[in-house]
Design goal:
elongated; 76 residues; 2 helices
């Protein structure tokens, strides 16, 4: 129904953040280097949570469509 979603902005943002974190991972300060690893892990966890929530939302939508169809057929 709709065209492919444009994720150009998100892709550019992800690449920019990754490049910045890679640069900071070579910083002289050990706390900064350690913080980059924590941040990368946190970002990955957030991406996994987003995927899980999108899957749950898709499942919910399918269930609601079936429920609506059943209701509509019952009203005939």
């Amino acid at each position: 129904m709709f065209g492919k979603e444009d994720n150009t902005y998100n892709e550019l943002r992800d690449k920019s953040i990754s490049q910045w974190l890679d640069g900071m991972s070579r910083h002289d300060d050990i706390e900064v280097r350690g913080g980059t690893q924590v941040t990368k892990g946190y970002i990955e966890d957030l991406k996994k949570a987003i995927i899980m929530l999108e899957e749950k939302n898709t499942l919910k939508d399918k269930y609601l469509k079936k429920l609506k169809m059943a209701k509509d057929q019952g009203n005939r």
